[in-house]
Please model this.
Amino acid sequence: MRRHLLVCAVVAVTLVFGLLVIGYGLSRSGSNDDRSTIATERWKSTADRGAGKGVWTLSKKAEGTVSVTGEWTYVGSVTCPFSAGSVMISGPSFSFTVTGTATDSSAPAGYQDSPFTLEVKGELRDGTGNGTYAITFSATGWPPGISGKWTATRTEGKGITE
Model:
C-alpha cells in the first residue's frame, strides 16, 4: 500500500512539473504564425494629397505567402481597419484586396458602421511606392465608393518588396 502511494506521489509531482515546463515554453515561444514569419515591412501611405492616409504591415511567411494588416483613414473620421489580406507581388508590382468594417465617428447614430472592401494596386521600389486604390461601402447612407491615388514610404523592415 505504501509503495502504491509513493508511486502515485512521484507520478503526480512529475506530471505537475512537466505541465508547468510545457506551459512556460508555450507562453515564451509565441504562436506558430509568429515563428513562421521570415520578413516584415511597415509602410505609411498618403491618399489623394492628404485627404486620406494608411499604415500597412506586410508579413512574409516561410512558405512564400505575404499577408497585410493595417488601417486606411479617409477625411479624418472614416477608419477602415483590416487584417489577414493576401498580397500579390511580382517585381515592383504590388496589390492587395481586404475587407472589414469601416467606422465614421462623425456620422449620425445608426449610420456609423459599414462593411467595406479596399483594393490597392501599384508599385513599390526602393522604399517608396505609388498607385491607385478603390474602396466600396455597402451600408445604407454611406457613399458607394471612393477611389484615388496613393503614395507610400517604407518606415521599417525589409525583405519583401524591391
